[in-house]
Specification:
Blueprint lengths: L6 H4 L1 H16 L4 H15 L2 H13 L4 H5 L12 H14 L7 H10 L2 H24 L5
């Protein structure tokens, strides 16, 4: 792949704004497991090898088992996720694939399981990782 633009060098203010959003997500009440499941699943959908590599390693550091990491892409057929985790994964998929919109069923299920603040944090975490995925893929960041 030919070299591509390095956003932090060319548009540091914009890059720092994205970093600020990530810093906010880090300070939320979201559990580390919920954060990493969001990051892994969105990155899988978007095909961002750089982010999948980073967030599966982070997930291991937070104690997420290999089995749960491997099954994230097929979570509907796995009995290793809680009801809350399944709601987060479903919402992550629909926000990531936003062209199909977020169904009332998926949204309401999450809204019944989480208070408004936690739900807002979930949504913002999904939006943030999608931004990082798009930045990494577009600028050619590679998993190593």
């Amino acid at each position: 792949m030919k070299s591509r633009i390095v956003i932090p060098n060319v548009a540091p203010e914009a890059y720092n704004a994205l970093l600020s959003l990530e810093k906010y997500i880090s300070s939320t009440s979201l559990t580390p497991v919920h954060k990493e499941l969001i990051k892994i699943r969105a990155s899988q959908i978007n095909g961002c090898a750089f982010c999948i590599n980073m967030h599966t390693a982070d997930a291991r550091k937070h104690g997420i088992s290999e089995q749960r990491i491997y099954l994230t892409s097929a979570w509907r057929e796995a009995d290793v996720y809680t009801e809350e985790e399944k709601a987060i994964l479903a919402l992550t998929e629909q926000v990531t694939l936003i062209g199909n919109h977020v169904s009332d069923e998926v949204y309401q299920n999450a809204a019944q399981l989480f208070d408004e603040k936690y739900l807002a944090e979930i949504i913002l975490a999904i939006i943030t990782i999608n931004s990082w995925n798009r930045l990494a893929i577009t600028t050619g960041l590679r998993a190593s």
